[in-house]
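for ur thesis appendix - Peptidase inhibitor family I36. copy paste whatever u need, i formatted it the way the template wanted (i think)
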Amino acid sequence: MVNVLRSARRTTSPAGPAARAKKPFFLTLFLATIATAGLLSAVPAQAETASGCTYPRVCFYPTVAYLNANRPTASYRDITPSWQNLGYQARGAAVVYNSRNDDGARLHFTNGTTVCVKPGVYVNAAAYGTVDKIRIMDSANC
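the 3d part is after this line
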């Protein structure tokens, strides 16, 4: 009975012990390559934080000092079909930063002016007036 089992093992791998040793290595290498490729492809989906504004947000800073300290006081991230009124921590911000990769944010000011904040761009909002609304769009050009 023992001889039958040994011969059955030999017939499952006709190339001998050397071939059996190589298969796990190549399989391991293949799986490692796939795993590495999966990790590398996931990296671009995560953007870096700039000025304390985590992806995918549009951040508001009441003064340049808050910007330099990486301390936004408010942020918005939802794409909306219409304007969102800003809360008290965002309204009248001096600087606005868009950390999104490919979505623009249109700012509305109390004087009727609108400004597009493209992805990765800072805007000196105080130069346009008092910002009071935001609309994040599924377009880099607003």
